[in-house]
Amino acid sequence: MDRITKIAGMLKDNPADNFLQHALALEYIKLGNDEEARALFEKLLKNDPAYVGSYYHLAKLLERSNKTEEAIKVYEKGMQEAMRAGENHAHNELRAAYEELTF
């Protein structure tokens, strides 16, 4: 819980910091609080669709929650954004997870 408190405190000073939002969501996942993590990832991606790193984690969370169709859409959007940003490594990771889920 200490890491969550620290990150949340830093977010109060910088509420638009995508890295801190992403880090906080990952901490919530570690605690099994997928609802809070999902809300953070969705807010982050709504405000900054180009923050490619969050698509993978959001889609995996959706997979764990048996929300396959939603996960597929997140992977697809993430692949589009990764290509747009020229982030080939992220695109390949998203594509691999997408293909594992859909084939």
CATH class: Mainly Alpha
Question: Which architecture per CATH?
Answer: Alpha Horseshoe
> How many beta-strand runs?
0
Report the order of strands and helices: HHHHHH
Compute the separation of the termini in Å: 38 Å
Q: What would you report as the Rg, rounded to the nearest angstrom? A: 14 Å
Report the β-strand fraction as a percent range.
under 5%
Number of helices: 6
| The number of domains | 1
Enter the CATH topology name: Serine Threonine Protein Phosphatase 5, Tetratricopeptide repeat
Q: What is the arithmetic mean of pLDDT?
A: 97
**Can you identify the CATH superfamily?**
Tetratricopeptide repeat domain
Low-confidence stretches: none
Question: What class, by secondary structure content?
Answer: mainly alpha
Question: Could you explain the architecture of this structure?
Answer:
- With 103 residues, this protein is mainly alpha-helical.
- The protein has one domain: Alpha Horseshoe (Serine Threonine Protein Phosphatase 5, Tetratricopeptide repeat), CATH 1.25.40.10.
- It is built from 6 helices and no strands.
- Helix 2 (18-30) packs antiparallel against helix 3, helix 3 (34-47) packs antiparallel against helix 4 and helix 4 runs antiparallel to helix 5 (68-85).
- The longest helix is centred in the last third of the chain and has 18 residues, at 68-85.
- The protein is globular and about 40 Å long.
- The termini are far apart.
- The model has no long low-confidence stretch (mean pLDDT 97).
